[in-house]
Design a protein that fits this description.
Blueprint lengths: L8 E5 L5 H10 L2 H8 L5 H7 L8 E8 L2 E10 L5 E8 L8 H15 L4 E7 L3 H9 L3 E5 L2 E7 L5 H30 L11 H4 L9
Parallel strand pairs: 4-5
Antiparallel strand pairs: 1-2, 2-3, 3-4, 5-7, 6-7
Amino acid sequence: MYEGLISGGAVRRLWFGETELYRQHLLRLDPESRRNRFGGAVSDEFIAHYAEPFALSGAIIYGSFVDGVLRGAAELRLLTREGEAEAALSVERPWQSHGVGTALLERVLLVAGNREIKRLHMICLAENRRVQQLARKFDAELAFQSGSVVVDLIAPRPTPISLIRELVADGAELATAMLDVASQLSKRIQHIDGSPARRPAQYRRLTLVDNWR
C-alpha cells in the first residue's frame, strides 16, 4: 500500500458499498478539475447518475484517502479489445501536486498487469498538462488529436510477487474499509432515536460486496 503521500494519507481499493464516497468526491471537484476528469463541463445530476452502483459494476476503483476522506481516485475499466483497458484519474485541487496521482496510477498499472492487460489508455484534454506530465513519468506514448490527447501506457507483466502484493493489499484494504464503514455507521446511528429494532434496516446491516473485480 502507498502511505505517507501526505500527512494522514493512504491509497486503498474502494468496494461496492463505498460508491457514495466516490460520488461525493466527484461532486467536490472544482469546475476545472471536473472538466479535466470528464472531458467537459458536467452537472451534479450527471455525476449522481455516473456514480450509481450499477453504473460502476464493471469498474475497479482505487482511492487516495486523507484523514479518512476520499480526495483522489483512479477508475479502471476493461475494454472489449482483449488485453486493453482504460483509466481515468481525479484529484481534488488542494491535494494536487502531492504525489496522489502518481500513487494512484502506479497502483492501477499493477492491477491491470495482474489481469493480463497489456495496454492502458487514458484520454485527456490538450490543456491538461498535469495528466500529460504524470503519464510521461511512466514512459507513456502521447498522441494529440483535435483538442484531446490519447495516452498509451504499457502495463507491467504479472509476476508471483505482483499477484501476492495485490492479494495482500486487497485483504488489508477490505478490513480497513469495513472499519471505516463501521465508524461512519456508528456516528449516524447515534442520531437515530429508539431501540435497534426500530432503526431502519440499512443501519442494522451493511454488506460490502466485491463485484468490481
